[in-house]
C-alpha cells in the first residue's frame, strides 16, 4: 500500500490508476538535437532541432529542402534523363523552381490528395499549409 503522500490515485469505474511520481516526463529537459544517417553518407549528421542547422558547422542539414532538391536533380540525371528539368517557362536558361518540380510530380500530387482526403474522411481536420514563398527557390548548382 502506497501512502497518499507519494501516490496520486484516480478511481475510474472499478479500475484504479496510480502514479508513483507526479512529475513524469519533463519536456524541457529533452535534448534539442536530432541525428540522421543513410548508407551512402560517410558519417551521421547531428542537427539542432530548433534551427535545422548542423551542430558542427552551423550549415543547413542534408535533409533540408534545398539539399533534397539537389539530390533529386542528380538522381533525375542518373536515371537516364538527358538533362535536369528546366523551369515551367520552358526557357532553358531559367533553373527549375522547387514548387514547380513538386507540382509537376504527378505521383507526389496524387499521394498528397489521398492523404488530405484520408485526414478529412477520418475527421482529423485539414492539413495546415505553409506560406507558398517557402517553396519558391531555384535549383542551383
From TrEMBL:
Q: What's an example of a GO molecular-function annotation for this chain? A: double-stranded RNA adenosine deaminase activity
Question: Which PROSITE patterns does the UniProt record give?
Answer: A_DEAMIN_EDITASE
Which cellular components does GO assign to this protein? cytoplasm; nucleolus
Q: Which GO terms describe its biological process?
A: adenosine to inosine editing; RNA processing
Positions of the A to I editase domain: 25-137
Q: What is this protein called?
A: Adenosine deaminase RNA specific B2 (inactive)
Q: Which organism is it from?
A: Scleropages formosus
Q: Which gene encodes it?
A: ADARB2
Amino acid at each position: 500500500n502506497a501512502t497518499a503522500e507519494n501516490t496520486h490515485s484516480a478511481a475510474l469505474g472499478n479500475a484504479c490508476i496510480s502514479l508513483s511520481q507526479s512529475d513524469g516526463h519533463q519536456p524541457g529537459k529533452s535534448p534539442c538535437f536530432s541525428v540522421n544517417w543513410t548508407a551512402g553518407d560517410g558519417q551521421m549528421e547531428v542537427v539542432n532541432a530548433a534551427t535545422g542547422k548542423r551542430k558542427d558547422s552551423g550549415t543547413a542539414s542534408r535533409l533540408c529542402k534545398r539539399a533534397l532538391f539537389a539530390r533529386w536533380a542528380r538522381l533525375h540525371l542518373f536515371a537516364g534523363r538527358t538533362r535536369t528539368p528546366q523551369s515551367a517557362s520552358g526557357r532553358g536558361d531559367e533553373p527549375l523552381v522547387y514548387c514547380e518540380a513538386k507540382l509537376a510530380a504527378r505521383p507526389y500530387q496524387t499521394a498528397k490528395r489521398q492523404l488530405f482526403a484520408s485526414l478529412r474522411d477520418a475527421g482529423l481536420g485539414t492539413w495546415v499549409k505553409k506560406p507558398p514563398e517557402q517553396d519558391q527557390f531555384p535549383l542551383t548548382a
